[in-house]
Design brief:
Blueprint lengths: L5 H20 L8 H12 L1 E2 L2 E5 L3 E5 L3 E5 H10 L8 E7 L6 E7 L14 H21 L5 E13 L4 E10 L8 E9 L4 E9 L3 H13 L1 E3 L20 H8 L7 H4 L4 H31 L1
Antiparallel strand pairs: 1-4, 2-3, 3-11, 4-5, 5-6, 6-10, 7-8, 8-9, 9-10
Length: 301
């Protein structure tokens, strides 16, 4: 869950919009601007596709051309700038380096082997109801933190599980209760299951853009593969840990704790949260130019 103060939120917002102008103008990022420096560090550290990115000792990402991967250290600084906390599960961020106003978080959750039998029988309506109820419970904590409660409104994409590749995709829309929002933020959640846990790739964008950006999420999901010995099929029931929940609970229970503005966009103080959120999405179009320049500079060097 995100933890920050209103003053920091204001500073983050100013830094974000300041960088957008700089990126569009293709000027140098001033070192005295802490927020801009964070984005510049991310651009400098970015690994550009096509290349293979190691995801801990578990899997690899065959990063395609047109995308850039920001490692954990610099990625965590970006997340903090946007009002988000990260932990040991965080691996990095993915950005488009050409066109597109979105980013994707990459995490590894060592939950153990997740049994997937319930995917054969689950009901999308029941899962949505479970997600709604779990979100209502989570609102109690949000209210204690002074954060606007949220409600789940609909599926953006109903949960779909590929039992052959052990990949899960789902997305739900959530809005702040009592707040008018014509274009809410969407988290498009994708997972790859392994022997000891799962890799999650969470694409963050707006409701108006999600349909156009789903192909990127699926392309990146397909680019993740677990290492030999770490694959879902390598599970040994005699020795391996089994997760305390199945796929349905991963959606309806575990995910409910992250829903709303979601864990990866952050749980912001109500007064400033949506401003940063909107600013954060808006800045991404400009960052493509910044990241592209970073690639050109590294090539020239």
């Amino acid at each position: 869950m995100s933890r920050h103060h209103a003053a920091a939120a204001r500073l983050s917002l100013l830094a974000v919009f300041g960088l957008v102008s700089l990126a569009h103008a293709q000027e140098e990022v001033p070192p005295e601007d802490p927020g801009a420096a964070v984005w510049q560090a991310a651009a400098d550290a970015m690994l550009h596709g096509p290349q293979t990115i190691e995801l801990r000792n578990q899997a690899v990402l065959a990063l395609p051309e047109g995308y850039g991967f920001v490692p954990a250290k610099e990625g965590a600084a970006v997340m903090e700038l946007l009002g988000n906390s990260t932990d040991g599960r965080f691996i990095g961020l993915i950005f488009p380096t050409t066109e597109g106003a979105w980013f994707m978080t990459v995490d590894y959750e060592p939950a153990g082997y997740i049994e997937d039998d319930d995917a054969k029988e689950w009901d999308a309506d029941e899962l949505l109801d479970s997600l709604k109820e779990g979100t209502k419970v989570g609102n109690k904590q949000r209210e204690r933190m002074g954060i606007t409660p949220i409600e789940v409104t609909r599926w953006v994409e109903q949960p779909a599980y590929d039992a052959t590749e052990h990949r899960l995709v789902w997305s739900a829309e959530a809005k702040e209760i009592g707040v008018e929002d014509q274009d809410p933020t969407i988290n498009y959640n994708t997972y790859v299951l392994g022997r000891e846990g799962y890799i999650s790739l969470n694409l963050i964008t707006s409701a108006s853009a999600i349909e156009a950006q789903k192909p990127a999420a699926h392309e990146l999901l397909a680019a993740v593969s677990f290492n030999e010995g770490k694959r879902y099929s390598d599970f040994d029931p005699a020795t391996d840990k089994v997760a305390a929940y199945g796929l349905a609970a991963l959606i309806g229970g575990v995910a409910a704790k992250k829903l709303g503005l979601f864990a990866m966009i952050g749980v912001f103080l109500a007064k400033f949260g949506k401003l940063i959120l909107v600013g954060g999405v808006a800045l991404l179009a400009g960052l493509g130019k910044l990241f592209k320049r970073g690639k050109e500079n590294s090539t020239a060097a």
